[in-house]
Amino acid sequence: MKRLPLGVVLLLMALPLWTYAAMQLAAVVRPEVLPSEPPREAGPDSEQLAVARRQAEAWSNEVRKAATIAQQYRVPQASETSTDPAVRAVIHAAASRSADLNDLNVFLADVERPQFTGALKTQYEQWLNERHETKRDAEAIVSWLSQPPPIRSLSDANKALAEASDLIRTYSQRSKFSDTAKATLWRLRARWLLIERLIELANTHYRQALQTKLPLEPGANPIRTAVETLRGLKMHWEAFSTDFRQAETDDPRLDPALRAAFDARQTIADDCTAREELLQLFAQDDLFATAAGADAWLAQVAARYLRTKDDALRAIIREKVQEFCEAYIPRQVLLDTEVLLNGRPVPRKNVVLKFIDQSNGQVQRQPLAAEEEGLNEWTAPQRYSPKWTFVEYMGSEHYLRELKATRLSQVAVEYNAARKRLTESTERPRWTLKSAEQLKKACENDKDLVDQLQSRDSSTGRAAKIWTRLNILIAGMTNNPDLFAQ
Predict the structure, then answer these.
(1) Torsion angle defined by CA atoms of residues 292, 298, 303 and 304, in that order, rounded to the nearest 10 degrees
(2) Using only C-alpha atoms, what is the Rg of the chain?
(3) Is the pTM of this model over 0.70?
(4) N vs C: which end of the chain shows fewer Cβ within 10 Å?
(5) What is the C-alpha to C-alpha distance for residues 58 and 221, in angstroms, rounded to an integer?
(6) Residue 360 and residue 256: Cα distance in Å, rounded?
(7) What is the 3-state secondary structure (H, E, C) of the chain?
(8) What is the pLDDT along the chain (486 residues), one digit of tens a residue?
(9) Class of residue 37 by CB neighbours under 10 A (exposed 0-12, middle 13-18, buried 19+)
(10) Cα–chain center distance at 451
């Protein structure tokens, strides 16, 4: 609420009383000062003139007294009383107005413990209470702006903004003494503080997301958290931009410092969108589960890679592509679901190995494993003596030598060996067009069987179709060589 200068207020309030005083005095003086009878032709004598002069002087003093009090708007002193009813009325009106003006002056001066005496005493006291409450509301807002709550998540930012908005809303609705311009500026500053903290948080989450290796764990993960933070930052920025432009339309000189900060951050929305799009590529739910699509995915990553000018970010993108390749082509596969027993295929899950534990001489039984490093048709003869090891199947017992691997299990072992060589390679980058073609060549003689191998990696699914994946990956590498450059 803008305050008028005290002198102007007093002048405006004085005008009605001046008019009132002049009218009252004119009404009093006019019949009393003039002679009641028309003058004689010879004119008044000296005694009459002296009486008239004394009357005129007396009324002049009364008029001057009343006019002085009325003009100064003050309580009359003891010497300024009058016996004339009309003059007393003028003086009383001036005294009453004086009390009102004095209350106004005290109110505008913001005296600590004011004493109101005028007719508007109750109203001034109510206004004073409202102003004190509004002042406390303003102090609470300033305190929040000077030390906002810590922001560790998007939820914290939303909660803090709601808190600041409630404080500002209370201030604005408390009374007529709230300052609309101040409330607008506080609202903008509160959101800007949160935007600055969200920028820091988004940068932190983005770095953590890029450091998270593929494939992602199910459920919540750093990449999804970073995407959520980036979306929240973009939402707050767009809301701030709308509010700020409207506020500047109402008051172009709102806050030059805030305008400069706003201008310096004009790329926030575009940066958030670019980062989110890149992270979303890494966070696709079916990124590894689908055999087809690697070439299309690599093309999308390459498009963003070529638009990136930051060398450090380019290096990170290339590293994420390496992680993608490592997870896209299964690192290890399972043995066949069947084994050969006396030359006949039987389900692996129904085969049990019976052997004597050399440490304690006890007979042990263990189901046949599907993992290459487990107890299976390959490792049993190496770990236990065939003389004391037998195969049980559906109630019958067989010699260990009667247990053999299928061709698919042999292909699985060969694939695991070739894939391990690539994983343990010291060349960087590990995954290149050359290394992928070498792995493909190792699988080429049994490509149909390679497509039947069951992956141990849950992210790629059991039916991985490895031969199909290799061909699609090589096509993507051929079409997007920049992603595999050193």
Answers:
(1) 120
(2) 48
(3) no
(4) C
(5) 98
(6) 85
(7) CCCCCHHHHHHHHHHHHHHHHHHHHHHHHHHHHCCCCCCCCCCCCHHHHHHHHHHHHHHHHHHHHHHHHHHHCCCCCHHHCCCCHHHHHHHHHHHHHHHHHHHHHHHHHCCCCCCCCCCCHHHHHHHHHHHHHHHHHHHHHHHHHHCCCCCCCHHHHHHHHHHHHHHHHHHHHHCCCCCHHHHHHHHHHHHHHHHHHHHHHHHHHHHHHHHCCCCCCCCCCHHHHHHHHHHHHHHHHHHHHHHHHHHHHHCCCCCHHHHHHHHHCCCHHHHHHHHHHHHHHHCCCCCCCCCCCHHHHHHHHHHHHHHCCCHHHHHHHHHHHHHHHHHHCCCCECCCCEEEECCEEEEHHHEEEEEECCCCCCEEEEECCCCCCCCCCCCHHHHCCHHHEEEEECCEEEEHHHEECCHHHHHHHHHHHHHHHHHCCCCCCCCCHHHHHHHHHHHHHHHHHHCCCEECCHHHCCECCHHHHHHHHHHHHHHCHHHHCC
(8) 444 444 444 444 545 555 555 555 455 444 554 455 555 555 667 776 677 667 666 656 666 655 565 555 555 655 556 556 655 555 555 555 555 555 555 545 455 556 555 555 565 556 556 677 778 889 999 999 999 999 999 999 999 999 999 999 999 887 777 888 899 999 999 999 999 999 999 999 999 999 999 988 877 889 999 999 999 999 999 999 999 999 988 887 778 899 999 999 999 999 999 999 999 999 988 888 888 889 999 999 999 999 998 999 999 999 999 999 999 999 999 999 999 999 999 999 999 999 987 778 789 999 999 999 999 999 999 988 888 899 999 999 999 999 999 999 999 999 999 999 999 999 999 999 999 999 999 999 999 999 999 998 877 777 789 999 999 999 999 999 999 987
(9) exposed
(10) 47
CB contact at 8 A, 485 and 307: no
**What are the backbone angles phi and psi of residue 453, rounded to the nearest 5°?**
-65, 145
Helices 268-282 and 222-250: crossing angle in degrees, nearest 10, is 160
Other CB atoms within 10 A of residue 124 CB? 19
